[in-house]
Amino acid sequence: MWELLWPAWLAGCLLALAAATLGCLLVWRRLSYFGDSLSHATLLGVALSLWLHIPVWGGLVTVCVLLALVLANLLGKRQLPSDALLMAVSTTTLSAGLVTISQMDEVRVDLLAYLFGDLLSIGIADLPVLSIALLLVLAIVSYFWRELLSAAIDEDLAAVEGLPIIKLRMLLLVLLALVVTVAMKAVGSLLITALLVMPSLVARPLVSTPTHMVLLAALMGVLSVSGGLLSSFYWDTPVGASIVLSIALLFVLVHGIVFLKENYYGRTVESQT
Prior knowledge:
Blueprint: H1 2-29, H2 32-52, H3 56-74, H4 82-102, H5 111-116, H6 127-143, H7 145-153, H8 155-160, H9 165-187, H10 192-203, H11 210-235, H12 239-272
C-alpha cells in the first residue's frame, strides 16, 4: 500500500504546507475569494493549452500568473469592490473554459479529473517538478515573511513603514497562482479554495500569534491530505472531495469544541462562582 500512496502523499503534504501558508495570508488580507478566482481560471488554462497544442502545465501557469498580475493591479483601485470583481472574474473564466472545451470535438477531455482532481495519479516521475515548485514557493515566502505578514495584517501601516505594498501584493498573488496550478492536480479547480482557506480557519481559534497559526494550519492541511488519501484507498472515494471533507471534519470538530467551551463550560464556571 505504501508503495502506491507515498508519491501522492508526499506531493499532497508539500501542497498542504504551501497552500496553508498562503491561505493564512489571504485570510488576513480578506482575499479568500482570490483563490476561488484563480482556481476557476485553471479550466481556461487547460482549454487554451489543448487549443494551442502546448503542455497543460504551460497553459495553466501562463493563465494563472497573468490573471494574478491583472487582478493585483485592479484590486488596488478603490472604485472596484474586491468581492464583486473576484466573483465576476471567477464565473467568467470558468464559463470561458467550459465553452472553449465544448467546442473541441477532436479532443476528448476528462472534465471530472480537472474539476475534482486525482492526487493518486501523481507518480514518482511527477515528484521532482512538483517538489521544486512548491519548495521554491515556501522558500520565497520564508524569505519575505516579515514583509508579507506586515502587509497582510495592516496594509496602510506597512505603507507608512515604507514597504512596497503593490510589489508585495503581486508577489503573493503570483505565488498563489503557482500553488493553484499544482493544486489542480490534487483537488481540482472547484475545490482548491478549500485547501487554501479552510486549514487557516481551523487553526485560527486555537492560536494567538500569526506564526503559530501558519504552523498549525500546515499541520491541519497535512492531516487532511493523509485522511483523504486513506479514505480514497480503502473506500474508493474521490480523492479531492475526501481531502476537503477531512478538512471540513476538522473544522466542525475544532469550532464545535470552542463553541461548547465558550458557551457551556463558561456558564458552568459562572454559576459555580
